[in-house]
Protein BatD (Pedobacter frigoris), 326 residues
Amino acid sequence: MKLYFNFCWCLLLCFTCFIGKGYAQQVAVEAKLDKSTIALGDQTILRLIARLPTAQQISFPTLTDTISSKIQIVEIGKTDTLKDTSNPAVHTLSRSYVITSFDAGIQVIPSFVFQTKGASFSTVSMPLEVKSVKVDTTKAIFDIKQPIAVSYTLMDWLRDNWHWVVFAVVCLLMLGGALYYYMKVRKVKPVQVIQEKPAVPPHLIAMEKLKELRNKKLWQQDAIKQYHSELSDVIREYLEKRYGISALEQTSDEILSGLKSREINEEDRNILRQVLQLADLVKFAKATPLNTENELSMNNAISFVTRTRVLSPVVENKTDQRNESV
């Protein structure tokens, strides 16, 4: 009797292991890279794939903005489902991740764990080679070519905008009739002239914002990214109002290239380059500058605004007083 009981117990145990092994063999997970080699700052797509029975559910790894300290996630796609026409009982789930890296060398994409009810499955880790960008120092740097001008005559403009011309003529006729009625029928009242306040010079606005930013003490409170982002915005707003360029919509390289034709000496250009490039490193490469570098960016921003300002006789004394307070 005891021998019969032991035989039944072993048979049940073997049957359970066989079922578990059969289920595990039905689930397969893997990770793929569209490109295993990218340039510094370039992007590639990481695909996580799971093949399993349609009746089963599986949980993908939870990823947010980074895969590792040197690999960042730019965009996370939706989960796609692919049916197997040859085997309707099995389907394939796939999710894509756009990734990038700003650290040269061989970066390791770790193993990812998928979870099902009562089991887990892991992918194999893989390398991602990030190559640094080689700069050819033997070639000269050229300015951006200006767009080619295309002749556009008055007749072309009238042909394209005739409906606006008709609308303007009708409005002028209506306005003329209204003025005629007003002058003939009603007495003309004296016009009160409202003196507009003089516009505040760009450098005064910039110096005031720099003073407010310094008083916030952001980088002292570990808000380094916010500090450099606001500092860069103040300088870009000043450049737009001072030189009439779209600095808020341009990259740092485009700004520096566009200012080559302006009357800015090399020392001031280098001061501006330090502020913009350090802000880019903090915002996009997640760099952590030293305390002295944070303070240097503020001092260089104040120095650049002060050295490139345009003074009028009315606001010259007021400007000097504000600069001393900053």
